[in-house]
User: Which sequence fits this backbone?
């Protein structure tokens, strides 16, 4: 399998549940990203990892917890979410994380919080 | 801090007509500029980007964009729209200084192509 994959593609959870989103890239990249895409709003960068080290945490609530065990895998652990957290969560990767990098996106996980 | 404004959240054109999607940016330093496209139920895909050099940039699927510093613009064009161009288009900017990893996106423009 090539490119950036995300699982699950759809997730419905209650506010007291704990779930995790998974992202995997097969491109040999060293940087990985989590974005939140909500209707009528620009993509919001949540977290950036470079060489498995978190280098950006864009004021994201602690109910979102990222994990990057190696350069190919990225997780987003979710707990006690709110209905306003319902959105499309996109994972991306790039070669180095530099300013001119092209970011390669996965298809996203559509999250609904009840 | 940088910002991106995309004029028109929805643009509708006829098949074969010119496509023009507008993007203006705000940055105190020279920017790097990107256009991404998102087809239904998919992630974003790079169309083209401007980093340095020639200000007219050609991308995939017949799209091109011109960086105009004096107008702080990076408008996306395609001479003849095809039905397969229907998608949402995002302009984005990244600049040096501060965080080296932040790409700032506009709100997107939904392109509809009518037969």
Assistant:
């Amino acid at each position: 399998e090539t490119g950036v994959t995300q699982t699950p593609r759809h997730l419905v959870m209650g506010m007291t549940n704990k779930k995790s989103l998974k992202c995997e890239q097969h491109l040999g990249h060293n940087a990985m990203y989590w974005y939140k895409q909500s209707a009528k709003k620009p993509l919001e960068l949540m977290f950036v990892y470079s060489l498995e080290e978190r280098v950006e945490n864009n004021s994201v609530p602690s109910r979102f917890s990222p994990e990057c065990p190696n350069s190919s895998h990225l997780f987003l652990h979710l707990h006690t979410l709110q209905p306003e957290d319902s959105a499309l969560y996109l994972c991306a990767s790039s070669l180095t994380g530099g300013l001119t990098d092209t970011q390669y996106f996965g298809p996203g996980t559509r999250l609904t919080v009840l | 801090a940088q910002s991106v404004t995309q004029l028109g959240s929805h643009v509708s054109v006829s098949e074969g007509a010119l496509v023009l999607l507008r993007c203006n940016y705000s940055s105190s330093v020279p920017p790097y500029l990107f256009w991404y496209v998102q087809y239904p139920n998919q992630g974003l895909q790079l169309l083209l980007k401007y980093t340095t050099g020639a200000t007219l940039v050609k991308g995939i699927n017949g799209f091109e964009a011109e960086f105009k510093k004096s107008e702080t613009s990076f408008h996306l064009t395609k001479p003849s729209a095809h039905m397969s161009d229907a998608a949402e288009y995002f302009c984005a900017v990244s600049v040096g200084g501060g965080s080296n990893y932040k790409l700032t996106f506009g709100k997107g423009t939904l392109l509809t192509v009518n037969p």
User: Anything to note?
Assistant: The interface with chain A takes residues 4, 9, 32, 34, 36, 41-46, 49, 51, 90, 94-96, 99-108 of chain B (CB under 8 Å). The longest strand of chain B covers residues 19-26. Residues 56 and 82 of chain B are 22 Å apart (CA to CA). The two ends of chain B are 41 Å apart (CA to CA).
